[in-house]
Amino acid sequence: xxxxxxxxxxxxxxxxxxxxxxxxxxxxxxxxxxxxxxxxxxxxxxxxxxxxxxxxxxxxxxxxxxxxxxxxxxxxxxxxxxxxxxxxxxxxxxxxxxxxxxxxxxxxxxxxxxxxxxxxxxxxxxxxxxxxxxxxxxxxxxxxxxxxxxxxxxxxxxxxxxxxxxxxxxxxxxxxxxxxxxxxxxxxxxxxxxxxxxxxxxxxxxxxxxxxxxxxxxxxxxxxxxxxxxxxxxxxxxxxxxxxxxx
Length: 247
What we know:
Layout: E1 4-15, E2 18-30, E3 35-39, H1 46-53, E4 61-66, E5 69-70, H2 76-86, E6 87-90, H3 102-112, H4 121-130, H5 146-158, E7 164-168, H6 176-191, E8 197-200, H7 204-207, E9 212-217, E10 220-226, H8 232-246
Parallel strand pairs: 3-8, 3-9, 6-7, 7-8
Antiparallel strand pairs: 1-2, 1-4, 4-5, 9-10
Helix pairs in contact: 3-4, 3-5, 4-5, 5-6
């Protein structure tokens, strides 16, 4: 069973007297262990789709099924629980709590779910080691670089061992070296740990790390590109070609 499925998902917004369709009957699915990038011009519906996939917003029509749960059939509280236990989020600007240390930020999803840090000490240690921040465990965000803060955010997204990780421009606020480190880390979590990732990005280089790139335009999926080898340069050039056609 796919981790995530959308069936003819539509999202409309009211802007005064006008109804704007951000997504129009989108069919999309993500398999376990897959790394999918979503690309498209500004206003194509990328962020709207990501919000629907993570249960942060509801669709106007159609269905989003996350970890086997059809979200439209659930109450708001039930959607919150599904999201809390099945989705890890990574944001462009990290969204760390400034008063908490690295390990406390990583543990935050567990605390929100009513669990005790003491019961997950080994898990937190493993995540700190995974992202290379064992020596920074007691540092607060303002004591870390942007790349280190984003690595904390990656570890936090993995804390509950979610069914899927949703990443919104995860390298958009980083320099090239730090961005590459984050992309290598995400690729590693898929290849070696079996995690599933959907990433919105405007960066062809970032998208070249994915197994599949989905292109949106005017609320429709208009093209898909599958990576057939490990030649990221070739993949990046193919992505750029598609984006030029869409622009």
